[in-house]
Amino acid sequence: MTGRRSATCAQPSGDHLGRGSARTFVALAFAAAIPVLLLSGWVATLMAQQQRDLTRNGAVASAARVAERVASDIAAQIAVLQTEAASVSLDRPDLAAFYSEAERLRQAHPLWETVELSNPDGVQVVNLLRTLDKELGPTADRTSFDAVTRTKRPVVGGIGPIGSISGKRLVALRVPVIREGELRYVLSVGLASNAVSSILRDAGAPEGWVGAIVDADGNTIARTRAEAEELGHPANAALLAAIRRAPQGFYNGSTLEGSNVEVVYRTLKDTGGWSVHFGMPVATLNAPVSRSYLVLAGGSLVSIGLGLALVGLVGRDMAQRRAGEQARFALALRSSEEQGAVAVEAAELGTLRWDTANGRVTGSDRAAQLLGWDASGSQGNESETDARKILDVIHVDDRQRLTDVLRHSLASGRPLDIEFRVAAPGRDARWVRMTGRVPQLHKETPAGLIYGVVADIEPRKRAEAERLDLLRRLGEAQENEQRRIARELHDQVGQTVTGLALGLKSLERLVEGSMGDRAGRHLQWLQSLAGEIGRDIHRAAVDLRPTALDDVGLREALATLLRQWTLRHEIRSDFQVMGESVRLPAAVETAIYRIVQEALTNVLKHARASTVSVSLEQRLEEVRVIIEDDGVGFDGEAEPTAAAKPQLGISGIRERLSLLRGSLTLETSPGSGTTLFVRVPYPQQLA
Fold first, then answer.
1. How far apart are CA 275 and CA 283, in angstroms?
2. How far, rounded to the nearest angstrom, does the alpha carbon of residue 424 sit from its chain's CA centroid?
3. How confident is the model at residue 626 (pLDDT cuts 50, 70, 90)?
4. Main-chain dihedrals φ then ψ at residue 629, nearest 5 degrees
5. Fewer CB within 10 Å: N-end or C-end of the chain?
6. CA–CA distance from 409 to each of 360, 415, 427, 505, 637 (Å)?
7. Residue 81 and residue 160 in contact, taking contact as beta carbons nearer than 8 Å
8. Do residues 465 and 508 lie in contact, with contact meaning Cβ atoms separated by under 8 Å?
9. Contact status, residue 41 vs residue 298, Cβ threshold 8 Å
10. Backbone angles phi and psi of 255, in degrees to 5
11. 610 near 573, Cβ under 8 Å?
């Protein structure tokens, strides 16, 4: 009966929780929609403005590019004219020869309407639109002609009046013809206005833009649209005002077609005041911004409606949920505390609270046991002690390091993780590990407070020490055995082979002249074989234990190793030494030598390299070795597999370095070679 009543009473609560969850979901949906709507409108506005700015910047770049192209084209035309002005046909002058040359130039330049040659007084001598025997009269554009005679420099004219010979309004390009320091003639090219428009279009005007070129007097001399209606007429007032204001920039205006445009313009270099103008339709330019404003306004209205609905929904739900939430939070907190306590006890961990501001440490019995303070008089599961008492029992070599780590964690807010030794009176020093962090529960958290966990790691440290000691003894035994075998090979087997070679040489002298060619060749082969055996034995002895390592030290031993390795395997090598030449302890020199040997073996087996570089640097506090190859490399992040065999050699190098408290950094990737950075602490730190 009791169970049934409980179940019945629990049913409405479940329905209430279900309704509360539904309201929460709706409220969250409203709350998420409001910023999304506002953000989307804001982002749309920013993107539209950015697109508009990009379009304007593109217009500036296009105008600059077109201006440079047009100026370059005009400069090229003038350069051709200057070349013709230096023609020998004008020295005599030989007008017939000049006429022929000018005709060939005009045929090579389709944009040239005519070529004329005038006296300094302005009377035409040659005009390709007439034969030489015709009377030609004065030149048409007197303004640009007078500028040439006055300055004796090339001049780019504007659009001139209708010529008496051509019957057209031409753009004159003029250069002086000077002989012996005097102006003899003025050589001119007449460009038709549609030719200048062709230059403008060919220079890369953007699609859909209206482009125009205006001369120094403000007359239109080229246009990408409606050329006939505009060419030779003064430009509009907005254009003329912009030119007078600055040599380049923006202004607003309207086109002949009636559309409003934003115009970017730039004055052309070395053209006597020409300027190029490009009009961008304002409607097209501002359309994305206008649409984004509409999106932002609509999103704001919808957000206001959702916000009002959210306020009503949340206000109705808060009072109903508060009591239930508090009860569930209290139950969850108690459950979490119980689970945490069980986990800490099972792991034999100690918990503590370190108050650095007041110099007090509060912790569990296990923490007191591990950190060596007396918790016998405490009440409950926790005890408190002075922080100085804990620091007093920390091993003297670890005390300052623990203080620095605590101070750094408090200053940066980062978690701390440190291993140190505790040497309590009457007990052996034991290794412990403390991890913790600054609590971030609320703003009123006291300053200088750290919560942490302490664990006993003495068994692991002891096992590591035993393992390192075993590896060290194995390494020493291996080196001693290799040294003994190398000595046996060199002293005994090597001497035996040397004796064999001497015996064969004596035998050759004894039987010389009494044996046939075949026996002589066989005896020589035996002598060669004995020599090869001797060299192989010497090489094997050096590989087992190089005598240079014991006699002259690490530098010479590595130099000898790389020379012999290069000769044996035909792979280029480079050896560099930096720092003072100081003999290192035998264990350090042997380990570094073996590490370089192992790295070279990896290069030979896997790298397919053509060059290997080894660098040795001795500093005051450490020894650094860098081994680099230009081979195929490998994936340094991959697990050691059959396809990642270099990892096996790397693990051996790391094993050797662990005995010396050294470190290895590996940089490699497929196709980019491999570099090993080896660091070994100097003997002062190894003592």
1. 25
2. 52
3. very high
4. -130, 165
5. N
6. 17, 6, 30, 79, 30
7. no
8. no
9. yes
10. -95, 170
11. no
Please give the Cα distance from 590 to 477 (Å, whole number): 13
Under 8 Å between Cβ of 266 and 64: yes
- pLDDT for residue 627 is more than 90: yes
- CB atoms near residue 423 (< 10 Å): 15
Question: What does the radius of gyration of the chain's CA atoms come to, in whole angstroms?
Answer: 47
For 124, phi then psi, to 5°, come to: -70, 135
CA atoms within 13 A on the CB side of 310: 16
Fill in the DSSP letter of residue 418.
E
Contacts 24+ apart (CB under 8 A), 14-22: 16/320, 16/324, 17/324, 20/317, 20/320, 20/321, 20/324
Distance CA 499, CA 530 (A): 10
User: Comparing C-alpha atoms, which of 413, 417, 388 is closest to residue 405?
Assistant: 417
pLDDT of 574: 92
Give the pLDDT mean for 367-371.
80
Q: Which residue type occupies 530?
A: A
- Residue 610's CB is within 10 A of a number of other CB atoms, namely 11
Strand partners, 454: 350, 434
In degrees to the nearest 10, what's the CA dihedral of 402, 406, 412, 417? Answer: 60
Q: Could you write out the DSSP letters of every residue in 75-131?
A: HHHHHHHHHHHT-GGGTTT-HHHHHHHHHHHHHH-TTEEEEEEE-TTSBEEEETTS-
Starting from the edge strand earliest in sequence, which strands make up the sheet with 663-668, in order?
572-579, 611-618, 622-629, 674-681, 663-668
Q: H helices then E strands: how many in the chain?
A: 18, 21
Find the angle CA(124)-CA(129)-CA(131) to the nearest 5 degrees. 75
Q: Omega of the bond prior to 646 within 30 degrees of 0, cis? A: no
Question: 197, exposed or middle or buried, with CB in 10 Å at 0-12, 13-18, 19+?
Answer: buried
579: left (phi over 0), alpha (psi -120 to 50) or beta: left
In angstroms, rounded to a whole number, what is the distance separating the alpha carbons of residues 306 and 312? 10
Which residues in 636-645 are b (16+ Cβ under 10 Å) and which e? eeeeeeeebe
Which of residues 672 and 292 earns the better pLDDT score?
Answer: 672
Q: Copy the structure tokens of residue 372.
A: 């060596």
DSSP state of 585: P
Cβ atoms of 122 and 130 closer than 8 Å: no
- pLDDT band with cut points at 50, 70 and 90 for residue 257: low
Q: Compute CA 368 distance to the chain's CA centroid, rounded to the nearest angstrom.
A: 51
- Adjacent-strand bridge partners of 184: none
With cut-offs at 50, 70 and 90, classify the pLDDT of residue 83: confident
Q: What would the pLDDT profile of 264-323 be if each residue is shown by its tens digit?
A: 888 877 777 788 887 777 666 666 666 666 666 666 666 676 666 666 666 666 766 666
| List of residues 6+ apart from 366 with CB closer than 8 A | 344, 348, 349, 350, 351, 454
Is the four-CA dihedral 113, 117, 123, 128 of positive or negative sign?
Answer: negative
Alpha helices (H) along 187-281: 193-202, 227-230, 237-245
What are the residues whose beta carbons fall under 8 Å from the beta carbon of 544, sequence distance 6 or more? 482, 483, 485, 486, 489
